[in-house]
Amino acid sequence: MDATPLPDDPPLPTDVPTLHGMVRHLTARNRFLEGRVVELEATVARLEATVAELQGKLDALLKHRFGRRSERRTPTPRPPGTPPRRDEHGRSPLPAHLERRVDLHDLPDADRPCPHCGTVRPCIGERVTEQCTHPVKTVCGFGSDEHASVQATTVVAAVA
After folding, report:
1. What is the pLDDT of residues 9-31, one digit of tens each?
2. What is the pTM (predicted TM-score) of this model?
3. Phi then psi dihedrals of residue 10, to 5 deg
4. Domain that holds residue 45
5. Taking a C-beta distance cutoff of 8 angstroms, is the pair 130, 117 a contact?
6. Which of 106, 99, 108 is nearest to 141 (CA)?
7. DSSP per residue, 124-155
8. Is residue 144 classed exposed, middle or buried when 0-12, 13-18 and 19+ CB atoms within 10 A define those classes?
9. Torsion over CA of 89, 94, 100 and 104, rounded to 10 degrees?
10. How many domains are contained in the chain?
11. Which DSSP letter does residue 113 get?
């Protein structure tokens, strides 16, 4: 640092007590300014952490809003051993307290043999479609057995 006085600086006093006072004043001012620097550095660090947190939130919101569908949501992990949850489609089931009447439509005997191998197709399941009557007192179910051949890949059901 250059100690040459600037042309605007007033000349320094020559008596020692005045110089001691000036040194004390400058030392106190230097301590104050060093404390202020520490405070401001802490404030800057706190604000940088806040900016980083807000930037992360903004990135997540932009990804959710404008990202690809597969990137929009991170799925919540499910506990091991639990089957994946299936999204249910269609109507919710009708109330259990309603009276139910099922009309079963079975496959005619002429349609039971497999056209490929000629064996009788065994029943592999049942499909029931429910319909409400008005006023809602009973539920009419229309069911049909499903038959399939072991060799063929087709499933046959009676037409309701």
Report:
1. 788 889 999 999 999 999 999 99
2. 0.36
3. -75, 155
4. 14-74
5. no
6. 99
7. EEEEEEEEE-SSSSEEEEEEEEEEE-SSS--E
8. buried
9. -10
10. 2
11. B
